[in-house]
């Protein structure tokens, strides 16, 4: 076969020599590498989108820490947890204490060394938030009800149930409104309207004394109990049931006194109701004052008898004593009552303090409430009766 030297002269379908081989792939090596890189990026994106977020910090979920069953580590203050939280270990008020109390306070944030606070509960009055709760250490059970007593460590109801006051040396006025629990509406009005600094006195002949006492204490009032004592012209003038008399034996009078004392709790002192004759008889009054001293109760003399032997007996038996300067509502007229209150203010500015007594009449309650608010603006401090009593144990 002739060799055709020119491509154009070559017959169709014939080739001048062996055909050059075709390319092994349609893509170059660079194109393939680029494609693989894209696939790698897409795969990594899928892992991030559907995986467990390996590049994020895990979210912290706050959960309450379980209470440790084991004791706290050495050097830290452990707080005991009662087995039954619904039943506290003691129903004693939080502010009461058996003598000086050492309280260790562990800093919560720093976890540093515990601080120490020494508190003497007998040096301060009862916390008003729990003032209506009796301190069991100051109660003696009796057939007629709870009787006040000194605690085993010597604390007195006179101190524990006292309303706190500033302790300042300025002019002080103590006002005592008596006759509570006799009239339910009058008692409710007195407790609601009178400022907490006013002392309230409960009549032993009254009703629901325990309930009214708790309400009065919740509102900040210091309270005292009124004891019926024999007046002149007795029994024509009769203070009521269980009156202490001159002719009764000491045991009979003590029995009647304890009945009065058991009518309620949480009071600092007792106050005479009438008693012009009884208050002048040392033989009759002596055992009564000794009983008050033994139980840690104060005595408030309404000042109606100039011959009262109460000051001498109280000093002898260690009884805190307060003697009233005047009765503010002998005349039940608002103007007359306000005038008496102004006289108390003048007395307080002269000798440092003054004491006035009254009864739970509507006119008295309204006048006292109004006067107290104005007297405070003039710099007069209205204080409980315990703040102005002469206390032989604190001399």
TrEMBL record:
Disordered: region residues: 1-24, 60-100
Membrane-traversing stretches: 32-50
SUPFAM superfamilies documented for this protein: Glycoside hydrolase/deacetylase
Domain of life according to the entry: Bacteria
Keyword Amino-acid biosynthesis on entry: no
InterPro entries: Divergent_DAC, Glyco_hydro/deAcase_b/a-brl
GO BP: carbohydrate metabolic process
Keywords on record: Membrane, Transmembrane, Transmembrane helix
Descriptive protein name: Divergent polysaccharide deacetylase family protein
Organism, as annotated: Mesorhizobium hungaricum
